[in-house]
Amino acid sequence: MTPDSPVPYRLTRVGVVMTPEPGNIHEAEGVLNPASGRGPDGELYLLPRLVAEGNVSRVGIARVVVEDGVPVAVEREGVVLQPDRGWERGADNAGTEDPRTTWIDALGLHVMTYVAYGPLGPRTAVAVSEDLRDWRRLGPVLFRYQDDLDMDLNLFHNKDTVFFPETVTAPDGSEAFAVLHRPMWDLGETKPGQGVRAPAGVSDERQSIWISYVPVASVREDLANLTLWEQHRFVAGPEFPFEAVKIGGGPPPLRIPEGWLVLHHGVTGVIDSAFSQQQKVNYAAGALILDADDPSRVIARTPEPLLAPETDDERSGIVPNVVFPTAIEEIDGRHFVFYGMADSKIGVALLERTD
Hints:
By secondary structure, the protein is mainly beta.
C-alpha cells in the first residue's frame, strides 16, 4: 500500500452475465444483486435477486457458464427462497431481497444473510445450506442490548449484511464469527414522527458500516444462535465525495496479505423514501482494507471509486446509475466480482492487484 494507491486493487469490466428473461414473471422488474457459491458438484452458482411485478423479490439459483476462464452467462435452475413466511410479507409489500452468501469452513455451511421485507419494513435474516438449494431459515437477526450505545439496535432497519468466511477474535477476546451490517437510524421510516435516533457516540447520522460478533461457542451449542449478534462497533462511514450520502457493505470480505478486502458501495444524490425505487442517486463501488486481527479497524480505503456507472446497462434501469457489488468468486486463479447494474441486470468485473 502507498499513499497514491492505498488499496492496491482495480476492477475491470468483463461483461453482462444475466438479464431478465422475457416472459418470466419472477423477473419482470429485474435480476440483480446476486449472492454466489460453489455447489457440491464444484460448479459456480449465482443466487440472484429476482424481482416480480410490484417489487416482490425472490432468490433464484443459476449456474454460471464459464468460457476460457471468464464468466459469460448463466443457466437458470429455479427459485430457492421466496417470501412465504408471515414476517417476510406486509399488507402491501413482500420480499426476500439482496442475499449475501458466505461459505464458512468452521460450520461446513453456506450462510446467507438476506433482507426480509416484512410488515415493518426491511429486516435482516439468516439462513443456512449445505448445497445452495435447500435453505433452512434461522430467522430474523436479534441484536444483544449494549448499554454504552444507549439504544436498542433492534429498533432500526438494517441492510447490506454479510459474514466473514473465517472466525476472528471478538473485542472480548473470544473466538467469534463476524458480520458487517448497515443500520438505518431514521425511525421515522417505521413510526412517523420519531425522526433520526442514532446511538450514543454517533456524531454522523449518515448510514455507515458496522460490525457485530457471534461467539463460536454459542453457535456450537445451537446453530440458531447465529442470529444473535453482539459487541457492536462502528467500522466506516462516508468520507469521500462518492460516498457523500451513505455507504454499505458488499460481498463477503476477502482475505488478502494486508488484512481483509471489503468492497462496498458509496452513494451520492438524493434519497427518496428508504423503500422507494430510487431515481436520483448514484451508486459506485469502492474498497476498504480492514485489519486482519481487528476487523473493526480500517487501515486503508479508496478515495475514488473502483467502478462507477458508465455503461448504458449501469446507467439505465429500474434504479438508474447503479453499480452494486455483492459477490466475489475465484475462477481459474482469478477473482471476479458480480454486481447489480441499475437494479436490472447483473454484470461481472475482474478484480486484480495493481502492484
